[in-house]
């Protein structure tokens, strides 16, 4: 085993390809063959694609499986505070020695051949999963589906498509039809697929793909329904009705994600109500409308009577969901601290939030080459009707809000990369 830290090995891996994203499966197949095809030796795979809600849905499925006494591998991206979050082995984040070992092995097998960072680290995850006993493997797509590095398992147990919306158009296409078609590239002949709530255009594209490959479909709104009623969540399918508490993850959109997770668990034969309730009440997924409760930023906010929240959503659909979630909270003056990447639809994300926001404090994201400048984010905010100012850092913005708007609600938002930095700096 290498004495080099996993961070140093990951840094070397960043230099193996000139592009961060280069969608093809050729390099994956080459390296997996060199590693002895670990993707063929995994516990049953649940493969999850979609634009919004992949991580939340995966977290709920994992909570349900674990409540049933099962051991679960899980792969997700990007990480927030440290890379180890991406690989969960039988319920536990991968250890530093184990991570070093699989990264070293993948680097040695690949040599100097071109391969992207996401591809080689996905190979490392699959290698780790193949060597630890578990009952299920949850694979979250990184980007798209058809050509995503996770799409190398020939016969998953289930495939899921969470809500599809406009994002990553430079890679996936300019319309919902094109993007949904790419997401539906994970569907396989004979493998049951569960489709979450979709816009009609996206749903049509996914159903066409399912018919073309021969994938049996379970469709939200048709084969199962989920809704909120009197402060509870109701799930109904052909096997009956469940009266459940609302998901612990906040937001009305999480009711739809919870319905998809429960449908997946029931498709796996886990029909007990306690499994469904555990799925929605025990799921943990940070940086999704997360109330921060410790750390220097929280101390600075509470000194002015403010509360501090964090959300990593970054596309127009996420903006709509976030606005709906905020509208349900006790009314307080709302100040956004926002940093975004230049690959995102900034005005599309901010427009739904404008009617709720007293002021936006724009920041750049430290250490991210693709960050928008604070000025650019502020200009985008003003374009949708927000009052906006620039701040040199998140800490400065929190301090200014605490001093000038006592009792405010402060939400740090706009990017998972910004959210990860906040979580690291606040322990």
Explained architecture:
The protein is α/β, with parallel strands linked by helices and 427 residues long. It folds into 2 domains: 6-281, UDP-N-acetylmuramoyl-L-alanine:D-glutamate ligase (3-Layer(aba) Sandwich), CATH 3.40.1190.10; 290-425, Mur ligase, C-terminal domain (Protein-Tyrosine Phosphatase, Chain A), CATH 3.90.190.20. It is built from 16 helices and 17 strands. The protein has helices at 6-14, 26-34, 54-67, 96-110, 117-130, 169-172, 176-183, 200-213, 253-267, 273-281, 296-303, 316-327, 346-350, 374-383, 394-404, 416-425, and strands spanning 45-49, 72-75, 87-89, 92-93, 136-140, 158-161, 193-195, 217-219, 224-229, 232-237, 240-245, 290-291, 307-310, 334-338, 359-362, 388-390, 409-413. The protein has an 8-stranded mixed beta sheet, sandwiched between helices. Helix 13 links the parallel strand 14 and strand 15 (359-362). The radius of gyration is 21 Å and the shape is globular.
């Amino acid at each position: 085993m290498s004495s080099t830290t996993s961070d140093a090995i990951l840094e070397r891996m960043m230099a193996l390809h000139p592009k961060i994203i280069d969608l093809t499966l050729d390099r994956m197949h080459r390296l997996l063959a060199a590693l002895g095809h670990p993707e063929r030796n995994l516990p049953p795979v649940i493969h999850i694609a979609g634009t919004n809600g992949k991580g939340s849905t995966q977290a709920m499925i994992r909570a349900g499986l674990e409540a049933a006494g099962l051991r679960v591998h899980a792969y997700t991206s990007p990480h927030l505070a440290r890379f180890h979050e991406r690989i969960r082995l039988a319920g536990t984040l991968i250890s530093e020695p184990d991570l070093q070992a699989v990264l070293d092995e993948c680097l040695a097998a690949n040599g100097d051949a071109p391969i992207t960072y996401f591809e080689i680290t996905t190979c490392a995850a699959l290698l780790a999963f193949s060597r630890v006993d578990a009952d299920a493997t949850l694979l979250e797509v990184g980007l798209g589906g058809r050509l995503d590095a996770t799409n190398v398992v020939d016969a998953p147990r289930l495939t899921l498509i969470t809500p599809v919306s406009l994002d990553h158009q430079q890679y996936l296409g300019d319309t919902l039809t094109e993007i949904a078609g790419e997401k539906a590239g994970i569907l396989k002949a004979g493998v049951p697929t569960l489709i979450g709530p979709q816009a009609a255009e996206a749903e049509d594209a996914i159903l066409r793909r399912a018919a073309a490959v021969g994938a049996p479909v379970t469709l939200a709104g048709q084969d199962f329904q989920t809704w909120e009623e009197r402060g509870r969540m109701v799930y109904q399918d052909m096997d009956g009705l469940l009266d459940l508490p609302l998901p612990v993850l906040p937001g009305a959109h999480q009711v739809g994600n919870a319905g998809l997770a429960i449908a997946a668990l029931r498709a796996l034969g886990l029909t007990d109500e306690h499994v469904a309730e555990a799925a929605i009440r025990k799921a943990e997924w940070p940086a999704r409308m997360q109330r921060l409760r410790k750390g220097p930023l929280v101390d600075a906010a509470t000194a002015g009577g403010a509360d501090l929240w964090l959300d990593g959503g970054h596309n127009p659909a996420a903006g709509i969901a976030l606005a709906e979630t905020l509208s349900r909270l006790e009314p307080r003056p709302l100040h956004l601290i926002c940093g975004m990447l230049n690959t995102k639809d900034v005005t599309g994300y901010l427009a739904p939030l404008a009617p709720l926001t007293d002021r936006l404090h724009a920041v750049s994201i430290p250490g991210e080459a693709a960050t928008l400048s604070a000025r650019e984010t502020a200009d985008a905010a003003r374009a949708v009707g927000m009052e906006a100012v620039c701040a040199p850092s998140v800490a400065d913005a929190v301090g200014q809000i605490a001093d000038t708007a006592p009792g405010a609600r402060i939400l740090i938002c706009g990017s998972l990369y910004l959210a990860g930095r906040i979580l690291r700096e606040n322990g």
